[in-house]
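Example record used in the benchmark description.
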Amino acid sequence: MAQNKLHGFRVPQDIFRLGVCVAHVDEDIIVDPAGYIYPCWAFTGNTKFAKGLLKSDGSVEIINRALLAKNASLAWKNDECKNCSYLPLCFGGCRFFLFWMENHLVQKSAERKHIKRQLILLKTLFNM
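Model output (structure tokens):
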């Protein structure tokens, strides 16, 4: 992060508080060859899921406000998620899988059972 600031790039702290999912951070962008901006690489190529369009002058035109990061982050802002010990691993679940399996992007996804199974498997594999 210090290197980025040294070279003049502004790095929002939110990036480091919300984990690695790009759907939660508008500064992280996925751009296709036509200039469409997506919340996640899994949606790339389907312009129905484009949240913006990168113009030739470098500006961004927002074309779907529902796909902005503030809406993706609503998925975990509920009592169930806030009180869950798996929140740092999940943050309400994957937006792509949620849409694929349940046809919506904003509500929480039931990731707890999957994360628990993965942790049990890791513990078994590594005799932890």
